[in-house]
Amino acid sequence: MKHKEIIDKMTLEEKAALLSGKGEWQTWNLDRLGIPSIYCSDGPHGIRKQAGTGDHLGLNPSLPATCFPTAATVANSWDPELGDKIGQALGQEANTQGVDIVLGPGLNIKRNPLCGRNFEYFSEDPYLAGKMAAGYIRGIQSQGVYACPKHFAVNSQELRRMAMNAVVDERTLREIYLTGFEIAVKEGHAKAIMTSYNQVNGTYANENAHLLTDILRDEWGFDGIVITDWGGSNDHVKGVQAGSDLEMPNPGLDSARQLIKAVKEGRIKESTIDNSVDRMLEAVFELSQEREKIDDKGFKKHNDLAYRAAAESAVLLKNSDNILPLKPDTRVALIGDFAYVPRYQGSGSSVVNATSVEHMNMLINNTTLHVVGCTRGYLRSGGIDAIMEKAAIDLAEQADVVIYCFGLDELSESEGVDRNHMRIPQNQIHLLEKLVKVNKNIVGVLSAGSAIEMSWHHCLKGIIHGYLYGQAGAQAMLDIITGKINPSGRLNETYPVRYEDTPSLRYFPSVERNSEYREGIFVGYRYYDTANIRVLYPFGYGLSYTNFKYSDLIVNNDGIRITVTNTGDVDGAETIQLYIGKKDAKIFRPDKELKGFKKVFLKAGESRNINIDFDDKTFRYWNIITSKWEVEAGEYQVMVGADCQDIRHTGQINIDGTTTEYPYSKDHMLSYFSGNIQKVSDKEFEELLDRTIPDGKWRGELDVNDAVCQMYYAKSALARFIYKILTNKLKKNEELGKTDLNLLFQYNIPFRAIAKMTGGIVSMEMIDGVMMVVNGHFFKGFGIVITGFFRNRRLNKKYIKKLNSNGGK
């Protein structure tokens, strides 16, 4: 214990208070002991410190900060060093704004393209996600700020995210959903980590001892602080017992009183609380050191870095007839509302108040192109405007090439709600199909934070996907179009031909309470390659204005060596990708898995020998019989290529095994051994789980862990009436094309979280009364709510008086 001397001076009330938030973003300060408050802030791609009253949804304005491209964008760079640079900038701006803990990066797996928050996550692959996250973390923490990777763990949907149980087998948990976090902790040395809202196999992540103690702390050696997501604590006593430390945002000392009561009743040892307090004190004192701030020149450098990140992360998806780059003096028409109002970041708690935002229509006249005109063409909010369409068609007829800016708008993907489909708003495609009739030379500039269906891609000769490219992305897109920049981005996720091809089609999102991860380890390309499903653009895919030749593959016990040559006439960067497979495996496996990568810049005609080392994750799998990582003996295929389907060279290596005990029977698990996992039976899933599938149906009375939207099942007519009001409001917003994040949060929040999010106004005793009302016992429940309100207010005042008095007594 590092801070025993201080802990011995603390009262139990002070210890308990330190493990709960004081405000929306701050921890408690204990002045008599010299313990200051520390400040947390959202910041996966830019610091979001609110200038006024704080709220976790980003509804109130925040201080200006550099808006970098989102994680889903920067992951396309396949460059952890770029992530490190962005992390350094985030840390510097955090220092300038007085932020101690940056709540990011987000590295949950993109299990399904419809997850509304995919724009905040790196990849469908845990190895790529972990390496990119580790880069960000190293950068942030190099500035004396804590990074807080999130959301730990198995957070793959927004629907009922606070009242959902992820049912996942141990092998899938380890190999897919935890490996990225393992890399972030072991290689990035994260000093904080945020737990997810959901349950994992029946236990809330924040009180899941298997996750927090067995794996995070004991196996990975994590000694930092564990923080709840905002309102993500179910039972603070169980959380601390399991290894969680700080409950956020502001439960108003009700949770602290619960800790004190649990100690007095012998349900938790005070020494366990002391361990959490010790970790919190280490963070507080380390973060209270004076740190360097930046000036206007620093923000200018960060804008330049945002430009670089956008340029290196853009993916050239299509370039028929080498239409790109456009030659000087090409007559172009710039069409699309996104050229006027760029879609450069996601919606929700991560929204950044950018220091500046570039617009393509304001920049294009500074290029070498001859601009015949610019027009919006379509309504951003949907619907068709005949006058706008005609103006766009008339303009397209005058141009040699049309630059068409389009994609998912702000209402199409957002924190708090999952997407209903993978399509771009139809009015944008309607216009595109009209434009191609008058001009065959169309270059599309896409903006979207996650995978989309592209049945219209034949209408375009060139496609540049900028994803959500941050505040300086417009210039980067123009520089790629004109050839000033050679695109080098590679997709961090697969683009299926249609949503119906996705592996988790029938299992996403959750049905009632449970989300069953029946697809197992077959996420993304692991499924498409193994099941031989045709895709539009594979994982790792991206074109360049030059060509690269791979030769002379050498495989040895330490890794691979290969020669890469830029055979074109322009300089460019290539990402060499290493995949491993095993054809005669005794356990079921994907056809191939990413196990290494390296991005290298080569001048025209230049060759270089590239080494990619094997590591502890190259050949391992999780064995449910031995309950540890094992290596299967035998011959492995070592594949090196430009994407997961463009394998340039293949070698072999024989590896010694670590066990002769192999799980799984092929006769009982045909779906998993074939990779055709879209229709996994209950029996097969139970074989995978090694237990009975839990019942996820809502039955009987609702409890504190059910969501407000489940009042559909309530016995109380009043509760059902409130449910109808909220549902009707959501439907009206959908019809109007609006997303109300506050309403979505209210709709999906579990009842117990109300006590964690109201600044001490509501206690868990009051929530118990609310549940009585909901379940049909109005007068008894209402009485508990009223008496509980006054009791909670009195006890909070008494507690604060103790904290403010000398010695906390």
TrEMBL record:
Offer one example of a GO biological process linked to this entry: carbohydrate metabolic process
Query: Which InterPro entries does the protein's record reference?
Result: Cellulose_deg_GH3, Fn3-like, GH, Glyco_hydro_3_AS, Glyco_hydro_3_C, Glyco_hydro_3_C_sf, Glyco_hydro_3_N, Glyco_hydro_3_N_sf
Q: Kind of enzyme, top EC level?
A: hydrolase
Q: Does the keyword Membrane apply?
A: yes
GO molecular function terms attached to this record: beta-glucosidase activity
Q: EC number(s)?
A: 3.2.1.21
Residue span, Fibronectin type III-like domain:
574-644
- Write the signal peptide boundaries: none
**Which spans of this chain does the record mark as coiled coil?**
none
* Pfam families for this protein: Fn3-like, Glyco_hydro_3, Glyco_hydro_3_C
Supply the alphabetized keyword list. Answer: Carbohydrate metabolism, Glycosidase, Hydrolase, Membrane, Transmembrane, Transmembrane helix
Looking at the UniProt entry, the stretches that span the membrane are: 770-790
Q: Which family does it belong to?
A: Belongs to the glycosyl hydrolase 3 family.
PANTHER family, A to Z: BETA-GLUCOSIDASE
Name this protein carries in UniProt: Thermostable beta-glucosidase B
In the UniProt record, the gene name given for this protein reads bglB_4
